[in-house]
Design a protein that fits this description.
Two copies of one chain form a homodimer.
Chain A: H1 4-16, H2 25-31, H3 36-48, E1 52-54, E2 60-62, H4 64-87, H5 96-102, H6 108-117, E3 143-144, E4 153-159, H7 164-173, E5 180-186, E6 193-197, E7 200-204, H8 206-210, E8 212-216
Antiparallel strand pairs in A: 1-2, 3-8, 4-5, 4-8, 5-6, 6-7
Helix pairs in contact in A: 1-4, 2-3, 4-5
Chain B binds a DNA duplex (30 and 30 nucleotides) through residues 3, 5, 24-26, 34-42, 45, 56-59.
DNA sequence: AAAAATTTTTAGATTTACCTAAAAATAAAA
DNA sequence: TTTTATTTTTAGGTAAATCTAAAAATTTTT
């Protein structure tokens, strides 16, 4: 059994490991709003518990057990987000912080029943896949909107940024999950992208385009 | 903002204050499965924060703020219990421990929406009243089954013991909330009570009878 | 009202998760 | 390949919540 803090470290390492093999101390510290020295302390503890593999100065990787633990927390986080949106009518930009607390509630029974109550959802309100109770989930084949070329089209199926500010912005522009879009133009000057969204032209900054995930359904 | 631990102390003091004016150190320690020395430490802290009034060797009482905080935690606990039973099909003897964790989730919005989602319930699965968002709730006029006389009848509307063992036992005997009962006999020897429950005779020990709460609807 | 028993508090330690400041290792630049 | 910069670790310390053992206050009993 891990403390909330340990769980948060494991989750952070898990997410960081999606883009690098060896997760670095500083990256963890930045993500967790703490100091590198504190991270080193905790990493040692997690290593002692067999949840991470750790070589001094080389960063960490999750062990099998550590990874499963992290995935379980991610599962809980995402299921709670679905609950908040589907049942309690929260908006997708309001759920993150509460789910961040709820994910630590320890009851296998609770989560299994919640999963059932929600109808075994496959994705959370941001399009992220929800692992099943064995930790399995489909590797999603998303492409970042920024990587599409003029003429390409697809469906918005996810976002890679969960901040309220970002999500509210998307909402305002009408860029919500499930919407069909097509790239009409990419501005050389600032890299902003002009997209066609149900007969309407919408311009989004490069920064925004980086965090919208598309399931591509047709090349130019 | 209080720590989980502080919240648990406040809640415990609140419950103990239902039967005594000044809550004693040892009583808190016993209830919280900790040592009196730890209780003294925490009481000082709560007193510094203005949540309890404390005179050395004289026990504590909750201040207005402390009481409101405690009531809010009780509200959350009971709403979560309703959620677990009504929505996730937990049994009444399975909810206590999970609710004990859920009650600490800090989000006013979450609780208001949960309350609404559940249809603003007035009582939890054990018959305990749920305070509204202003902390108000009806003082319940329960009488302990043990205090009834032969011939008295009433409805089971609550229990004053939430342990799984006790609740499972009641379940087995058919003594659940809403059931009509009448006292047919009280045994001199061991104080056990013979009751009439929908044309069936059921015998319960004095210990059990102490923890069943009846809303009396007729004297002998 | 003294003696005995109980309750409560104090004093001093421990553990967890942090921190700062300085040292050590690694990586990047000259 | 040195020098410089960056990253990471170590050393030593703090605050929260706990503990044990002993002292102090209160209550009960004789």
């Amino acid at each position: 059994m891990q403390s909330y803090t340990e769980e948060n470290y494991l989750k952070t390492i898990y997410h960081l490991a999606e883009s690098t093999t060896n997760v670095q101390t500083n990256a963890i510290a930045e993500q967790m709003q703490t100091k590198p020295a504190s991270v080193t302390d905790m990493i040692k503890k997690l290593a002692d518990k067999g949840l991470v593999d750790y070589i001094k100065y080389q960063g960490v990787t999750l062990t099998e057990i550590g990874k499963n633990t992290a995935i379980d927390i991610v599962r809980k986080h995402r299921l709670w987000e679905v609950f908040l949106v589907d049942k309690l009518n929260f908006k997708w930009d309001e759920v993150h912080d509460v789910a961040e607390e709820l994910e630590h509630i320890r009851s296998v029974e609770l989560i299994e029943r919640l999963d059932e109550f929600l109808g075994f959802p496959k994705a959370d309100p941001h399009g992220d896949p929800i692992p099943d109770k064995n930790g399995r989930f489909a590797k999603t084949q998303f492409i970042k909107l920024i990587e599409l070329k003029v003429g390409d089209s697809g469906t918005i199926t996810g976002v890679s940024q969960h901040s309220s500010a970002f999500l509210k912005h998307l909402e305002k522009l009408g860029l919500t999950l499930g919407k069909q879009i097509q790239i009409s133009d990419v501005t050389d000057f600032d890299g902003s992208v002009e997209i066609l969204l149900s007969d309407k032209q919408v311009n989004i900054s490069r920064e925004v385009a980086k965090h919208i995930l598309i399931s591509s359904n047709g090349k130019n």
